[in-house]
Amino acid sequence: MKRIFTFVALAFLLGYNADAQQVLQDFSKAVSSHCANVSYSYKAVSGATVTGSGTLKLQGDSFFMNGDGLEIWCDGKSRWTLDRAAGEMVIEAVEDFEAGIAAADPAIILSSLDTHFKVKSSVRESGLEKVSLDPVSGALGIADLAIWFRREAGLPILSKAKATMGDGTMLEFTFKSMSWSDKVPESEFSFDMSKAQKSWIITDLR
Asked: Which terminal Cβ of the chain has fewer Cβ within 10 Å, N or C?
């Protein structure tokens, strides 16, 4: 499940490509100056097929994800992962990308796109811009990645994405909606521990 969330965050941070490298810069600027809101559905195929859906709010190096029973807050320093049904929460420090953490954070990906990914091609396809990227060093276990975008009011809008993971798992995402808004308070990206239930099992790994 963390890999699903990781891929959604990654797709958000790769940006629209009207001119390969320029688009990554455009998206980075938009993420820094706006709050991105998206709803998505996905299909993961690895022997069996798993489907699901969720929402993502992204701003700078912070995000909040909610989908398939998991809620994840990240303020760029700490990450809170909550399974309300199971009554369990795990709190972790945001680690360096090179540490090989399974669920890399958007801030880390954003700061290292040029280092870990390169644009392979960019073509128009059915009215959308298809951007194909190659990982430079096996980033996030992704072997192959393609993302389709359009633009609205000059800003990049995700349409769909496909990835092949190193273990052969195929991931397909459909971004049902995406919008940009003014920035929101940073408090929306951290969990208020005063709201934690006494019955929860909380593991703090920081």
From this structure: C
Of 195, 206, 164, 6, nearest in space to 82 by CA: 195
Question: Is 188 exposed, middle or buried, given 0-12, 13-18 or 19+ CB atoms closer than 10 A?
Answer: middle
**Long-range Cβ pairs for the range 164-169 (8 Å, 24+):** 165/3, 165/141, 166/138, 166/141, 166/142, 167/46, 167/141, 168/46, 169/3, 169/44, 169/45, 169/46
Whole-angstrom distance, CA of residue 187 vs CA of residue 2: 23
Q: For residue 80, what are its two tokens?
A: 């809170």
What does each of the 206 residues of the chain score in pLDDT, given as a tens digit?
656 666 666 665 554 334 555 666 677 778 788 998 988 888 889 889 989 898 888 888 788 989 889 998 988 889 899 999 999 999 998 764 444 333 334 444 444 455 567 778 778 888 888 878 787 766 567 788 787 888 888 888 888 888 887 788 888 888 899 899 999 999 999 999 999 999 999 999 98
